[in-house]
Amino acid sequence: MPLHNAADRVMEGVRSVQGQSLADWELLVVDDASTDDSGARVEALAAEDARIRVLRLECNGGPAVARNAGIRAARGRYIAFLDSDDAWAPDKLARQVALMERGVVFSFTAMERFDEQGRRLSAAGVPERVAYEELLKTNYVGCSTAMYDTRYFGKVEMPLIDRRQDYGLWLRLLKQAEFGHGLNEPLVRYTVRSGSVSSNKLTTAGYTWRVYRELEGFSRVRSAYCLAHQTGRAAVRNRLPGLARRLGWLHPVRGVAEADCHGPFGSSQ
């Protein structure tokens, strides 16, 4: 978990890990040179729970640097990610590890999106599996939903770019594995924050372009082709959901109706 000046929200995420039905976990919280008491708050919990470790970085390096520090320090077989804004459903690790133990080496789950006031916005489903070429056209993998097997991949770190480093990592993994496998259950609560980079579609498109050009080494033509798919599919999902479902670009979340505001995280009211 990368942590930077998130004292007002980090405790919910940490508590969601402590509340997992699968108790065999290690949480590495990487304090990325916070200037508030974020790290101190988590250290208070770590003093009571030996499964929590706090790593402190002297200089602020950004999410990729912090996540990579956590990857290097991790002692477990499976590496999962959780942002300080987000939270896991109680059965997230149990359900996902059970999938991984059936021979899956890279997996991800569906999630529910909430605003800063705790109101449910939408549910984001995932396909049963996705290959590299398909992920280039639609990134189905939310960072806080992902898990990979270090026995298969080794410790693969995120590329050191300002944004979309998680997407760069998923593409790296799928160059080594035939498929990533989706668990279409809403096991992550994702918070959409106003003014965030991810909420600005034009800015996000710019960073996605950099992934294609700088990380994947694509030509301008191929980069434009992939980006057109990303933006075009998103538009179809938003405006023509029925068509998107028929084309396989939209995946209703198992057990959660789109109009329903009740999932593993409770009501949005």
Jot down its keywords.
269 residues, alpha/beta, Spore Coat Polysaccharide Biosynthesis Protein SpsA, Chain A, 7-stranded mixed beta sheet, 3-stranded parallel beta sheet, 10 helices, 12 strands, 37% helix
Q: Can you walk me through this structure?
A:
It is a single chain. With 269 residues, the protein is an alpha/beta fold. It has one domain (2-252): Spore Coat Polysaccharide Biosynthesis Protein SpsA, Chain A (Alpha-Beta Complex). The chain has helices spanning 10-18, 38-46, 63-73, 92-100, 132-137, 150-153, 165-174, 201-215, 220-239, 241-247; strands spanning 2-3, 27-32, 52-57, 78-80, 87-88, 106-114, 120-124, 129-130, 147-149, 180-191, 262-263, 266-267. The strands form three sheets. Strands 4, 5, 6, 7, 8, 9 and 10 form a seven-stranded mixed sheet that branches. It has a three-stranded parallel sheet with strand order 1-2-3. β11 (262-263) and β12 (266-267) form a beta hairpin. The longest helix has 20 residues, at 220-239. The chain is globular. It starts with a strand and ends with a strand. The model is unreliable at 258-269 (pLDDT under 50).
Q: How would you summarize this macromolecular structure in one to three sentences?
A:
With 269 residues, the chain is an alpha/beta fold. The protein has ten helices and twelve strands.
Looking at the chains present, what oligomeric state does this protein adopt? single chain
Instruction: Please state roughly what percent of the residues sit in beta strands, choosing from under 5%, 5-15%, 15-25%, 25-35%, 35-45% or over 45%.
Output: 15-25%
Q: If classified by CATH, what would the architecture be?
A: Alpha-Beta Complex
Rg of Cα set: 18 Å
- Number of helical elements: 10
Mean pLDDT: 91
Helix content: 25-40%
SSE string, helices as H and strands as E:
EHEHEHEEHEEEHEHHEHHHEE
Distance between the termini: 28 Å
Shape summary: globular
Supply the helix-strand structural class.
Answer: alpha/beta
* CATH homology superfamily: Spore Coat Polysaccharide Biosynthesis Protein SpsA, Chain A
Biggest pleated sheet? 7 strands, mixed
CATH topology: Spore Coat Polysaccharide Biosynthesis Protein SpsA, Chain A
